[in-house]
Structure formats: C-alpha cells, structure tokens
Write a structure and sequence with these properties.
The chain is an alpha/beta fold and about 775 residues long. Helices cover about 55% and strands about 10% of the residues.
C-alpha cells in the first residue's frame, strides 16, 4: 500500500480523512491531505477532482480549473468530475467550455438531471435561451423535484420575455422548497418585470433575511428601486451590495446610476470607473460613463469612452449615436458622413439604434426618424399592458390640461412657453404643471409656477405614480414638453394616465409611440405630404407651431463692438446655435462667404476650448484666417439678446435649424437666413420667418443660401429694407402675438376634446385662424 510521506497514512486512509474533513468544512486540513496524496501520486483521480472542487469553493477558480482539467483527462474520469468541471466553467463565464464539459458528462450518463440543468446554465450564458429552456425541461422530466432546474427554467423564460410563465416556474420551485433563496430572488425579478414592484420588493426583503449577504439580490433590488425613482433607497441597497462583494462590477455600475440620479455626478464617475477597473469589457459602463461625461461637457473624454465601447460592442446604436454627438459638440468632424450613414443603416435595418434625439438632429429623412423612434419605443418604453387610465369619463366645467417637463427653469423651453401659462383662459381651462429633475431656482421657473393653478414636483415619483397622479387629478389632456430630449420621461406617457396625450415644443420629431395621440405642428415644419412620417395625428397651427414670450427682456445697454471682441468695422455674420448643429458642409458655405466679403467676421458662442480649437483649425483649412472667427462668452439672457444688435445677419444651420435661438434673433430685430430642410428640425426657422413676415429669407438649397448671404452682405440697402420690415412688423406679427397663439392652441385642445367626448379616435386637423 502506497503511503503519502507527509501523512504517514495509507493512500486510502488519507483520502477518506480528506473527504471527511472536506464534508465537515475543515477545508485547510482537507487540502493538505489531498495535496499530500498528489505529491505521491500526481495523477490520483479522486485527489485531483476533490481538490479542484475545494479550490473552487475557496474562489481560486484558475487553480480549480487546472486541477479539474487534469482529472477529466484521466481514463477514470466520472460524470461527476465532468459536471463539476462544467460548473466551475459556468461560474467563470467560460460558457463554450462549460457546454462541452456538460455534454461529456451526459455522454457518460445520459439523462442525468443535474447535468442537464447545468448544461442549460451554460446555454443561458451563451444567450441561447430557447435551447436552455429545452435543457431545463429535460432535467425536470427526469426529476420533477429538482429545485435548481425550476429556478433556472424561470430565468430562461424571463430572458425570453415570458414573465408570467417565469413566475409560475418559480412558484413550482417554492412549492418544493418554500425558503429557496434563488427561487424567491428570481420571483422578485419576474414580479418587477410584470409591474408588481411592491410584491417583488417584499420577496427581496424575505431573501435578505434568509441571506443578508446575497449581493445579487441587493444589486437587483437597488436597480428596481432606482427605476421607481426611490433613489436614496436604491443607493443604500447598492452600497450594501458592493460592501459584501467589492468586486461586483455590475453593482458598481448600478450604484453609479443611482448617484447620477441624485445629482452626485463626480461620485457617479468614480463608481463607473471602479466598475470598469473590475470589468474592463463592461460596454454598458463605458457607455454610461461616456454619457455622463457628455452631460458634464467633457466631450473629448466622452468620445474616448464611446469609441472604446464600440470596440467591445460594434453594433451599439447608443454608443454610435453619442460618439457622433459628443464629437459634434467639439466640432470634431472627422468621419462625420460615415458616422451619419452608419446610424441610418442601423435604423433602416430595424436594429436598436441611436437615441431618437441624436438621430433627429442629424438625420435628413423624416421616415427614418419615425423608424428610429418606433424601434426605441418598442425596446425601451413600450405601452404599459395595464394602462393607468381605463376609459373613465369625468365631467368638468373646464378642460384640465397638464404640462410635463424637466425644463421649468433657465431653459429654452421655459423662455418660450412662460407667457402661454399666464394667458390661458381660466374660464375654460384648468392648468397644471408637473416638473422633475434637480431643484433649480430661477425667475422664469417662478413665473411658470405662479401661472399654474397646480404645480407638482414629481421628481421622486415613478413613471407609473406620475401617471396615477394624472388620473387622480382627472387630467383630460397631458402635454409632453420633452419627447426624447435630455431628462425626458416618456415612460410616464407609456403608462397612459390621461385620455389624450400630446407631443409639443420640446422635441422636433415624431415620438413614434402609440400612446402619444397628437403632435402640435404647422404646415411648414410638417408638410401635408409628410404626415405619414409621424405616428401622432398632426394638428396644424395657422401661423407657427412655436409659442413665444413677449415679455423676454432685452437689456437696454448694448456693448460696444470692442467690448464684444468684434472689429471696429466689417460685416458681422453670427450663428449663436449650439455647436452640435454645425456641420462641415454648412461651415464650408460660411467660410466661402467670409472669403468673398472683405473684413467680415463670423460671431459664434464660445462653447468649450476643444470646439474653439477645432473651428479655428477648420477655418484655416478652408483658407480663412482663424482670427476672423469671434467667440462670444456666455452671459445672462437679457445681455445676450442685447448684443444681437451688433450683428448684421444670423446664419442658420442644417440639417437641424436654430429653434429658440432663431426666435431670439428675430425678437431682437436681427434677420435670420435659413435653408429649408427636409425634416421638422430642419424647417423650424422657415416656420418662424413665415410667421414674422420674412419668407424671402427662406432658401431652397445651400447654393441659394450662400448666394443670398453674399448678396445681403454686399448690398446694405437690401439688408436695411429687411431690417426695417422686421422692426416694423415684429410686435404685430403672429410669431410674437402670444395672445393669438394661446387662443389657437386652446382651439386645438377643444377640438381634440370634443372628438374624444363624441367617442371618436384622434384625427389630424387644422386650426382655423382667428381674425386679426
């Protein structure tokens, strides 16, 4: 009998004592005995196999895999050894190798239920969910009381979106083992997917009593609390998850999201960075860190993260769109045409594409924008299967309208819409405002709050809770002022809290959502022949779709040209648009005009240092001295409006026009030159110019746009006539007649409501102009 020299025991006794110590939890003693056996017999199967299992239990995965690989290479390898080899491979996410190991186990013992269950786990890891489900079903056919297979079957069903069946599978597991932590955890996930969040949270509470250090449950609970906007609770749960499992990359990722929700952006960045240190291949963390950097204006860093994310997930439309957008904020145009085309190709292929807002401002095809929006809605914000509003009818003396936005502060939307709230006819309309986002104090926000009969901060409420509030308030028409722009919450409207829901002002495209009934537009921004490019029913306003605030104050003092950084003499072109709207083609037009108009300059907003540097470089590359670009620093709105007086002509952008920026220029008396685009976002300036009485400044092509810019710059009389016309008509034009606009919008609301009361489906119509 061979005796391991380190023990003085026979081989059989050493193995028996090692196994006994292993079963008793004395892992150190068991490991010493296994190693002593292997020191004498390096290929002793039982020692290799059981020491491999022990090392896996200790978390030493690479060592465990090496030992188990040696064990299964021996002729005496058993089904159990192959199964354990596969289980450790599953845990290491080496699913292809795991599948091969489980198949070898099943070849030795066909129909083994545990091997079939573990094989299903490998298939699930490979996202082969249908095959995984079949493997779990085979396991359960062999052993209907195998709790792990019932749990895993529920996971597979959940991955397939079959949540009710997933729930039933977990209930079968719990009928066998009522305190099965995995089944409770998975049932909580399924319940939350079905919208039964409180029941899911109750399951997690029970799980965490049974296993307080269950990091996955803490993480998933935190993610659900975050979705329901219980941000502080979410952060506490995620803090616990990373405390019990510091190397849990997904929990660090979710924790970063919770911190971002709470406005703790620098802490969120640190948490994303920690997630990426633990899992450098986590493309989601790269995308979301890039998005946060983009929001913070750190677009060069954001671009690097999006580029890295695309190397890991080349088909990510989210990363592709935001890589383009972050570069556009910096006026970094390399690969611009190719990047736009990639987004179009994704959208036309019906794949998860870019954020709809990003696509809307860079696309020149309204039908593509509809495709993009519909894909996003289907993937991220589909209509609730159980809408909050269930068809109830309420009798009100006044139509109840609610405006929902995160922008009731120093924001373009607020500057446009404030006076509308003040001018609503309170004998016919009851006006509610609902706001979310970090608290901000501003004069414009205070005006809007004061003008609403009710004003609710719904920042801490879930989408469904806000929809329920709409129902409780018996709101008749809910107006979404955000669409898919930053901080939007289309999920509120997906829950259908009001009988009628309207897309207005904040988002210049279709939302592609079946739960948005109407879009407020005009015949310029949505030509009648394009109506089928909009999921909403189009309501045509008689003048322009855009409301304006006649109370926008312009500072009395005008800076001198020297104070504004402008030369003493020379024609001043300006474009105070956000830099992401600047494109290489339009910039080339601007540079050619500068070359032909001696002494002229182009006046732009300063933006960030990278954008300034890139624009100067692009000007030089086109033969224009960089100093002919003048950059205006940010300043209070009234002062910014006042400095418009120093400019001679505002040059618009394409494919996305100036919107509020264009109406700002016209309000100050500065003519705006535009080129008529092919989408809502590219036709806004034309709508404004028509409504202010200057259709001659709308050009059909970029060549015509360039020619007219040059003619106006060298023909002071022609430009002076336009400026006099604008000055004479500004106060009387429909564009700035807020009272008239309000009556038109109210007429639109009344007609929508009358159709609803007659039991008729939403349908497009044109609002008849009020006599002037």
């Amino acid at each position: 009998m061979v005796t391991p020299p380190a023990t003085g025991l026979s081989l059989g006794d050493a193995l028996r004592q090692a196994t006994a110590a292993h079963c008793a939890g004395d892992l150190a003693k068991a490991a010493d005995l296994y190693r002593a056996v292997l020191a004498t017999l390096p290929d002793q199967f039982d020692a290799l196999h059981l020491l491999g299992v022990l090392e896996a239990q200790q978390g030493r995965v690479d060592l465990a895999l090496a030992l188990l690989a040696r064990a299964v290479a021996l002729p005496s390898a058993t089904t159990e050894a192959w199964s354990n080899f596969g289980i450790v491979q599953n845990g290491a996410q080496r699913y292809h190798d795991a599948l091969a190991a489980h198949d070898r186990a099943l070849a030795l013992r066909p129909g083994n239920p545990k091997a079939l269950n573990n094989r299903g786990v490998a298939l699930q890891g490979l996202a082969r969910h249908d095959e995984a489900l079949a493997s779990f079903d085979r396991a359960l056919a062999a052993d209907g009381r195998l709790v792990a297979a019932w749990c895993n079957r529920g996971r597979a069903l959940q991955s397939l979106g079959r949540f009710e069946e997933a729930l039933a599978s977990q209930l079968r597991a719990l009928a066998i083992e009522p305190d099965c932590v995995d089944a409770l955890h998975c049932r909580a996930n399924a319940l939350c997917e079905l919208g039964r969040v409180d029941e899911g949270l109750a399951d997690w509470a029970r799980v965490l009593v049974l296993r307080p250090d269950f990091a996955e449950a803490l993480n998933n609970r935190g993610a659900v609390l975050r979705r329901t906007r219980r941000h502080e609770e979410a952060l506490r749960s995620l803090d616990q998850a990373v405390a019990v499992k510091p190397d849990f990359a997904e929990a660090w990722h979710n924790r970063a999201g919770a911190l971002r929700d709470l406005g703790r952006r620098e802490d969120a960045l640190a948490s994303y960075t920690r997630a990426l240190a633990l899992a450098p291949g986590h493309s989601g963390a790269l995308e979301m860190r890039g998005y946060l950097l983009h929001v913070l204006g750190r677009n060069e860093e954001a671009s690097r993260d999006f580029a890295d994310a695309l190397r890991l997930a080349p088909e990510s439309g989210f990363a592709q769109g935001l890589l383009l957008q972050s570069r556009m904020y910096n006026c970094d145009w390399h690969g611009y045409d190719e990047a736009r085309q990639r987004l179009v190709d994704l959208v036309r292929a019906g794949k998860p594409g870019p954020e709809p807002f990003v696509f809307a401002v860079h696309s020149d095809d309204a039908r593509d924008q509809l495709r993009c929006a519909r894909t996003a809605v289907k993937a991220r914000v589909p209509p609730s299967p159980v809408p909050v509003w269930q068809g109830e009818r309420h009798a009100h003396e006044r139509i109840r309208v609610a405006y929902l936005s995160a922008d009731f502060h120093d924001h373009a939307t607020a500057y446009l819409i404030a006076e509308l709230f003040e001018r609503h006819d309170r004998s016919r309309f009851e006006v509610t405002g609902m706001s979310w986002g970090p608290p901000r104090t501003s004069a414009i926000g205070a005006r809007i709050r004061a003008a609403c009969e009710r004003f609710d901060d719904v920042s801490s409420q879930s989408d469904r809770e806000v929809a329920q509030l709409l129902r409780e308030r018996e709101i008749d028409i809910a107006i979404d002022l955000k669409g898919f722009t930053n901080d939007a919450r289309p999920g509120i409207f997906a829950q259908r809290g009001a009988p009628l829901q309207v897309n207005y002002l904040g988002y210049p495209a279709t939302m592609g959502a079946p739960y948005i009934d109407y879009l407020i537009a005009d015949e310029v921004v949505v030509p009648p022949e394009q109506r089928d490019c909009y999921a909403e029913q189009v309501v045509y306003m008689p003048d322009s779709f855009q409301v304006n605030d006649r109370q926008r104050r312009i500072a009395e003092a005008t800076p001198t040209r020297a104070e504004a950084g402008l030369p003493d003499r020379g024609f001043v072109f300006c474009s105070f648009n956000n830099h992401y709207k600047f494109t290489p083609d339009v910039f080339s037009v601007w540079m050619r005009v500068l070359q032909k108009v001696e002494g002229s300059v182009l006046w732009l907003l300063a933006g960030n240092d990278a954008a300034v540097a890139h624009l100067k470089r692009e000007a030089a590359a086109r033969g224009v001295a960089p100093e002919r670009l003048v950059f205006a620093p940010r300043c209070p709105l009234d002062e910014h409006l006042a400095r418009h007086r120093l400019a001679d002509l505002f040059l618009d952008t394409l494919p996305c026009n100036a919107h509020t920026t264009a109406s700002d220029a016209l309000w100050t008396g500065l003519p705006v030159l535009t080129c008529l685009g092919t989408t809502f976002a590219g036709r806004v300036a034309a709508s404004l110019l028509r409504a202010v009485g200057l259709p001659e400044l709308i050009t059909p092509t970029l060549a015509d746009y360039e020619a007219l810019a040059l003619r106006l710059a060298v023909d002071p009389d022609a430009l002076a006539r336009i400026r006099r016309s604008l000055a004479g008509s500004r106060d009387s034009s429909p564009l700035f007649d807020t009272a008239r606009f309000t009556r038109h919008l109210e007429a639109a609301y009344c007609r929508m409501w009358q159709r609803f009361e007659r039991g008729e489906a939403p349908a497009g119509f044109a609002v008849a102009p009020i006599a002037r």
